[in-house]
Amino acid sequence: MTSQDSGRALLRHHGDVDAAPGLADFAVNVRLPAPPAWLRDRLVAALDDLGSYPSAAAEERARQAVAARHGRAADEVLVLNGAAEGFALLPNLHPCLAAVVHPSFTEPEVALRDAGVPVHRVQLWPEDDYALRPELVPEEADLVVLGNPTNPTSVLHPAAVVASLSRPGRVLVVDEAFADTIPGEPESLAGRADVPGLLVLRSLTKTWGLAGLRAGYLLGAPELLARLALPRPQWPVGSLVLEAVVACCEPDAVAEAEALAREAREHTAHAVSQLGDLVVVPPDAPFVLLRVPEGERVRQALRDKGIAVRRGDTFPGLTPDHLRVAVRAPGEFASLVDALRVVLEER
Questions:
Q1: How many helices (H) and strands (E) does the chain have?
Q2: What is the C-alpha separation between 193 and 210, in angstroms, rounded?
């Protein structure tokens, strides 16, 4: 394997690889092991429609639900097979130079590089608490991709700073997969139709335990969405995804997500208090970036004790001493903290 192939393989590494059956999972940032009962019931009821192809009416219903949830028009919504599909569609914009802000979710860079698009890495650093610095983005970049809040640093960038990256002739892609895990979604741009070239990517995976269904959507100008969707096949999204999108965008679901986000905020504060100086930067989302001595040894030792955490060295700018841990309820999180203390004392 060449060094280039090895680097590509690292970019394709995700938390589900670190987790495994039988391990306590602190590697994957999905809040629930399964959808809540009310959502499961909605999906079960939709099974009777699987004998028919997804209808245009069902797709329009899903777009209308998303539009109502974010105060947008229905033609500003593109329903996706998970947020990852949105990244896979980015090469359809044929950018000349893509700037990808790191450390961040690596799938956008993988998709762009696989399509032969030149990629410039915009590296953020812990000395600045991984703050977004717009001056680091090349002016000639006609595509800019960043996460907000950012995975794995758990940093939330100010919406005004993110929006300042907009330029004539530039597409600005903001990955808001974790936006609904933060109370009030204070820095979200999902409702902004006034930022030229803006595409906002949302996921239903994190809050609703739908990783296996692959459900998400893009928000943006209709002409941009049309360029992205041009090569998609007929019936690109299945009936269960469309039903999940409708269900999770209804007012009761949005209110439940907000309550869960407030609870997660309390759990995150507790986690930080337990982890102490290992925390690299104060987290905004319900996952925490750690830096521990002998990180690879620690990760393997935790695994031997039945606990999975996310390795950090596959994210550009991080090292084997970086680990990402998902926040859980205090009782569950205590098992990670106790095991980590034991492992660190074994040095």
A1: 13, 11
A2: 28
* Alpha-helical regions (H) of 230-329: 239-249, 251-275, 295-304
Give the predicted TM-score (pTM) of the model: 0.94
Nearest to 294 by CA among 271, 335, 323, 337: 323
What's the domain range around 12?
3-34+254-345
Q: Give the DSSP H or E segment for 266.
A: helix 251-275
Q: What percent of the chain has pLDDT over 70?
A: 96
Token pair belonging to 278: 């290992």
Q: Please say which residue of 250, 273, 294 terminates a domain.
A: 250
Question: How many Å is the Cα radius of gyration of the chain?
Answer: 20
In angstroms, rounded to a whole number, what is the distance separating the alpha carbons of residues 181 and 264? 7
Does 237 share its domain with 276? Answer: no
Among residues 188, 121, 177, 182, the alpha carbon closest in space to that of 150 is found at 177
Q: For 185-194, what is the mean pLDDT?
A: 97
Main-chain dihedrals φ then ψ at residue 277, nearest 5 degrees: -70, -10
